[in-house]
């Protein structure tokens, strides 16, 4: 039997809508659709047949409801099988293309380097063109989902720029990172959180002040799972981490000064303004056998210091 064309399906969809109060006509149309429609994503999108059929899922007519449930289940199975087949074909084509580029390209060379420490970087990949997915001949259309594939392409381009890692190594790393992002925040259910996580990772990778992070990711010194789930502060360059730690200590100092009862004395002299009106308090900040730490604040100029 010849599969029903989109125009024919569209006509039946209109008739189904017009006959929604006539159970016998509705059942007749549904059975015809069930017999003759070969579901594809394009057909369902163009004709809206799935949307219209689904309206009868809770019909008071048991026969209609049964046919609809059977159709919807069958169509979903067919669509999912086609998706898996298409994805498998894309992966096979991608693998073949990568092998072809690495074995026969006249624009790049892979140079053995026994001094490289990473097991993933077995050869140096030297290109005569700027490194990116296009120039590396890498297909980043992995899932057929625009947002996910865009993230994979952007992360690949960011890691590949200036790198000597082979394309297959970079692509494997990028796919692993995106996969962890998707596990944490499914982009179809929580697109905002997915995009925010991507922006944090991408901005840190391309940061000129954070080149060490990019190298660690490419060398697999940082696992994709840790990269995605760690506190964003952990991705900051070392000098910024030190600055944040100093701010944290200063905030702690200020908080302690604000909550602990302080005494004012003239025994201490401010090293900044030389005034002797100084408030202070003491805390045990180290082990019990160590002396107390004294925290001082000049009441005249606000200068703060501490000593043990």
UniProtKB/TrEMBL annotation:
Belongs to the TFS-II family. Residues 147-263 form the TFIIS central domain. One of its GO terms (molecular function) is RNA polymerase II transcription regulatory region sequence-specific DNA binding. Residues 92-139 are annotated as: Disordered. Residues 111-139 have a biased composition (Polar residues). Gene3D superfamilies: 2.20.25.10, Conserved domain common to transcription factors TFIIS, elongin A, CRSP70, Transcription elongation factor S-II, central domain. CDD domains: TFIIS_I (cd00183), Zn-ribbon_TFIIS (cd13749). The keyword Nucleus applies. Residues 99-110 have a biased composition (Low complexity). The gene is NDAI0D02790. Residues 1-82 form the TFIIS N-terminal domain. The keyword Zinc applies. GO terms for cellular component: cytoplasm; nucleus. Necessary for efficient RNA polymerase II transcription elongation past template-encoded arresting sites. The arresting sites in DNA have the property of trapping a certain fraction of elongating RNA polymerases that pass through, resulting in locked ternary complexes. Cleavage of the nascent transcript by S-II allows the resumption of elongation from the new 3'-terminus. GO terms for biological process: maintenance of transcriptional fidelity during transcription elongation by RNA polymerase II; positive regulation of RNA polymerase II transcription preinitiation complex assembly; positive regulation of transcription elongation by RNA polymerase II; regulation of mRNA 3'-end processing; transcription antitermination; transcription elongation by RNA polymerase I; tRNA transcription by RNA polymerase III. This is Transcription elongation factor. Residues 266-306 form the TFIIS-type domain. It comes from Naumovozyma dairenensis (strain ATCC 10597 / BCRC 20456 / CBS 421 / NBRC 0211 / NRRL Y-12639) (Saccharomyces dairenensis).
């Amino acid at each position: 039997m010849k599969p029903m064309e989109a125009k024919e399906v569209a006509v039946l969809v209109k008739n189904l809508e017009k006959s929604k109060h006539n159970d016998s006509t509705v059942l007749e149309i549904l059975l015809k659709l069930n017999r003759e429609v070969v579901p594809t994503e394009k057909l369902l999108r163009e004709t809206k047949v799935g949307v219209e059929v689904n309206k009868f899922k809770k019909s008071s007519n048991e026969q209609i409801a049964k046919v609809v449930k059977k159709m919807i289940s069958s169509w979903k199975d067919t669509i999912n099988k086609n998706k898996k087949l298409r994805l498998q074909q894309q992966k096979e084509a991608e693998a073949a293309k990568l092998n072809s580029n690495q074995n026969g390209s006249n624009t790049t060379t892979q140079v053995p380097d026994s001094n490289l420490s990473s097991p993933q970087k077995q050869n140096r990949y030297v290109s005569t063109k700027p490194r990116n997915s296009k120039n590396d001949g890498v297909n980043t259309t992995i899932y057929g989902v625009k947002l996910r594939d865009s993230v994979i392409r952007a992360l690949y381009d960011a890691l590949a720029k200036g790198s000597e890692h082979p394309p297959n190594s970079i692509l494997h790393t990028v796919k692993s990172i995106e996969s962890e992002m998707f596990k944490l925040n499914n982009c179809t259910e929580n697109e905002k959180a997915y995009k925010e996580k991507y922006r944090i990772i991408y901005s840190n990778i391309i940061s000129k002040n954070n080149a060490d992070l990019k190298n660690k990711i490419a060398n697999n010194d940082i696992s994709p799972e840790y990269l995605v789930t760690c506190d964003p502060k952990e991705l900051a360059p070392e000098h910024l981490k030190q600055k944040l730690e100093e701010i944290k200590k200063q905030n702690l100092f200020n908080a302690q000064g604000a909550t602990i009862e302080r005494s004012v004395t003239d025994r201490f002299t401010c090293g900044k303004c030389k005034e002797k009106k100084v408030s202070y308090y003491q805390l045990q900040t180290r082990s019990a056998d160590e002396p107390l730490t004294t925290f001082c604040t000049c009441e005249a100029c606000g200068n703060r210091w501490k000593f043990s």
